[in-house]
Specification:
heterodimer, A: about 260 residues, alpha/beta, Purple Acid Phosphatase, chain A, domain 2, 6-stranded mixed β-sheet, 11 strands, B: about 160 residues, mainly beta
C-alpha cells in the first residue's frame, strides 16, 4: 500500500463537486492507501465542533467516517481556515488530528508535514493573526459565542481574507526559503510536504543535511491535487490520475 | 497582598493562597525575584482581558521557571476583576504570564479535567485600582512583532511589591 497527501480542499456547500470528488476518492483509497494525510484546510471554514451537523459539513464527516470505519487511517492537520477542528470532530469522523509540523519517516526518508502557513514568514500581518487564532484563550472566547454568530463571523472573515490576499504581493504569500531550511534542519529532514500556497510542484530546498525536496500539494478549487508516495517513488497528480499513481509508486514504474 | 505598580497607576491584588496554593506560590516567587519589573501588558482586548507578565518592552519573551499544575478546579470563577494564569493549549503549562479579566468570562472556568475543559486558574482579585485596569483595557492597540492586540504605547509593570 501507499501513503497519500492532500490539502486545501476548502470544502463548502458552494462547491458540491469538490465534496463529491472527495467522497469518490475515499472509496478508491480503501485498500490502496494506508494513511491519508490531509494537510490543512479540508474545510473552507470551521466554526467549532458543535457545527459538525450543519448541512454544509455533515456529508463530509459521514464520508470520512465511512472511510475510517472501512480501515483507512486518516490524519488531519489544522489549516488557517479550519484551525478550530477539535477532538469532537476527530471522534465523529474517526480521523486523528496531526500537529503542525509533524515529522515522520516515509519509506526511509526523514520527512516533515506542515500546512505551510507558518512558513510564510514575510507576511507579518498574517503571522500575527495566526498567533492569535492559535491562542487557546482566544479560541475559547470565540467558541463561547452562539453557533449562528460564529457562522456569521466566519463568512465575514472569508470576505476580508479574500480581499487581503488579492491586495498582497505574490512573493509575500509564498513560503520563505530560510524558514523552510530552518524547519528541515530542526528535524534533520530531507523532504517537506505542505499545502497552503496553492502552487503545486516538487521544488529543491536547501538543508544542512544535503539537497532536500519541498513538495507542495495543490488546492481543489479548479482542479485537484494529490501526492502519492510508495516504496518505489512519489507522484504528484490530479486526483483523477490517482489509481495510476498508486500502481507506479508501488510497482516501481515511477520516472 | 501584592501591589502591581504600572506606568498607568497601581493595581492592588488580593491572592487566594488557600484556593490556589501552587499558583499563588508560583506568582509570589516571580514577584520576589523581581521577574515582573519592566515587563509589559502585551495583549489588551477590551471587553475580555489584559494579559502580561512574560514579555519585555521589545516584545522579547523572558525565560521562565518550569510550568505549574492547573488549579482551575478550585471553584473560583473568571469574573471581572479577577486575576488568572495564562497558558498554552496544554492545561498544565502556565509559567509567569497572567491576565486580569475585565468582564465576566464564564467560558474560561473549569468544567472538566480534559484538554478543553480545564479552563483558566483564578488565583486572586483586584482589591484596589480597578480604575487603572479599566484605563489599561481602553488603551489603543496595534499589530506588532508577530502579535495582535499589542498596546500602541507600552503599558509597563515597573515594580511588584509583596506587602
Amino acid at each position: 500500500m501507499a501513503q497519500a497527501f492532500i490539502a486545501d480542499l476548502h470544502l463548502t456547500a458552494e462547491r458540491p463537486e469538490a465534496i463529491g470528488l472527495l467522497q469518490q476518492f475515499l472509496e478508491q483509497a480503501q485498500g490502496r492507501i494506508e494513511t491519508l494525510y490531509i494537510l490543512g484546510d479540508l474545510f473552507e471554514y470551521w466554526v467549532g465542533d458543535d457545527g459538525a451537523e450543519e448541512p454544509e459539513f455533515a456529508p463530509v464527516i459521514s464520508a470520512l467516517r465511512r472511510a475510517t470505519d472501512a480501515g483507512l487511517a486518516i490524519a488531519v492537520m489544522h489549516g488557517n481556515r479550519d484551525f478550530l477542528l477539535g477532538s469532537d470532530f476527530a471522534k465523529r469522523s474517526g480521523c486523528r488530528l496531526l500537529e503542525d509540523p509533524t515529522p515522520l519517516s516515509l519509506y526511509g526518508v526523514p520527512t516533515i508535514l506542515s500546512h505551510g502557513d507558518a512558513l510564510c514568514t514575510d507576511d507579518h500581518d498574517y503571522l500575527a493573526l495566526r498567533t492569535q487564532m492559535r491562542d487557546p484563550l482566544w479560541q475559547r472566547r470565540v467558541l463561547s459565542r452562539p453557533l449562528s454568530e460564529r457562522i456569521a463571523m466566519a463568512h465575514a472573515l472569508r470576505h476580508e481574507s479574500g480581499q487581503a490576499t488579492y491586495a498582497k504581493d505574490a512573493a509575500i504569500l509564498d513560503v520563505n526559503p530560510g524558514a523552510v531550511t530552518a524547519l528541515l534542519d530542526r528535524h534533520r529532514a530531507l523532504r517537506l510536504i505542505h499545502g497552503h500556497t496553492h502552487r503545486p510542484g516538487i521544488y529543491p530546498a536547501a538543508s544542512g543535511s544535503g539537497q532536500a525536496t519541498r513538495i507542495v500539494v495543490g488546492d481543489w478549487y479548479e482542479g485537484s491535487s494529490i501526492l502519492t508516495v510508495g516504496p518505489c517513488g512519489q507522484k504528484l497528480t490530479p486526483v483523477a490520475d490517482f489509481l495510476g499513481a498508486v500502481a507506479d509508486v508501488i510497482s516501481g514504474e515511477n520516472e | 497582598m501584592v501591589e502591581l505598580e504600572t506606568n498607568r497607576g497601581v493595581i492592588v491584588l488580593e491572592l487566594h493562597a488557600e484556593k490556589a496554593p501552587k499558583t499563588v506560590a508560583n506568582f509570589l516567587a516571580y514577584a520576589r525575584d523581581g521577574f515582573f519589573a519592566d515587563t509589559i501588558f502585551h495583549r489588551i482586548i477590551d471587553g475580555f482581558m489584559i494579559q502580561g507578565g512574560g514579555f519585555e518592552t521589545d516584545l522579547r519573551q523572558k525565560p521562565t521557571r518550569p510550568p505549574i499544575d492547573n488549579e482551575a478546579n478550585n471553584g473560583l470563577r473568571n469574573s471581572r476583576g479577577t486575576i488568572a494564569m495564562a497558558r498554552t493549549s496544554d492545561p498544565h503549562s502556565a509559567t509567569s504570564q497572567f491576565f486580569i479579566n475585565v468582564a465576566d468570562n464564564d467560558f474560561l472556568n473549569f468544567t472538566a479535567p480534559t484538554s478543553t475543559g480545564w479552563g483558566y486558574c483564578v488565583f486572586g482579585q483586584v482589591s484596589e485600582g480597578m480604575e487603572v485596569v479599566d484605563t489599561i483595557k481602553g488603551a489603543p492597540t496595534t499589530s506588532r512583532g508577530g502579535y495582535q492586540d499589542v498596546p500602541a504605547s507600552d503599558v509597563i509593570i515597573t515594580a511588584v511589591r509583596v506587602v
